[in-house]
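In the design runs reported in the main text, the only information available to the sequence generator was the tokenized backbone. The following block is the verbatim input for one such run; it is reproduced so that readers can re-run the procedure and compare outputs position by position.
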């Protein structure tokens, strides 16, 4: 079974008590450039868990096996009262605590699935990169984003030369 990371992070945002208590809305975005579009929603919703539905990745080898590494990015954003640095600090601390709870849950979930035939076991919770937004990054919004890798096994083998050649145009077929 393929691990559906996007749905997993959306579920974290929906089922986390702090997110629920503080009105965090899980939404998808397509890269950091699309954050502005979501931020227009701040008039209706003050807090977001934004899951980037695009991923960075690479294919790599571990001995004889190949894997596709996908890097998922999740933003935890909270609006604060303009020019109120104490409110900003409180909202950033809230985002930090939610992040910590997400990481603890990912560690727990991975441990629970460690012996399953589930690709969840390939979620790299040993290192989760995070970065907080500076004071003036986005007007009236604070928070952070984190990135986590998931390495899924990838078949790069061919049964035979005929299977390999079936994917490519031969000289006889022309361009």
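Verbatim output:
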């Amino acid at each position: 079974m393929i691990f559906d990371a996007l749905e997993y992070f959306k579920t974290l945002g929906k089922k986390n008590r702090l997110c629920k208590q503080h009105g965090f809305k899980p939404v998808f975005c397509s890269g950091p450039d699309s954050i502005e579009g979501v931020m227009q929603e701040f008039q209706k919703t003050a807090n977001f868990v934004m899951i980037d539905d695009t991923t960075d990745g690479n294919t790599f080898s571990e001995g004889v096996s190949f894997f596709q590494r996908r890097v998922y990015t999740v933003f935890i954003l909270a609006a604060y009262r303009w020019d109120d640095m104490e409110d900003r600090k409180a909202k950033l601390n809230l985002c930090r605590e939610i992040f910590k709870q997400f990481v603890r849950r990912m560690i727990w979930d991975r441990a629970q699935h460690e012996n399953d035939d589930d690709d969840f076991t390939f979620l790299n919770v040993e290192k989760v990169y995070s970065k907080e937004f500076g004071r003036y990054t986005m007007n009236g919004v604070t928070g952070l984003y984190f990135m986590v890798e998931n390495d899924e096994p990838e078949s790069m083998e061919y049964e035979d030369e005929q299977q390999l050649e079936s994917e490519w145009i031969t000289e006889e077929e022309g361009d």
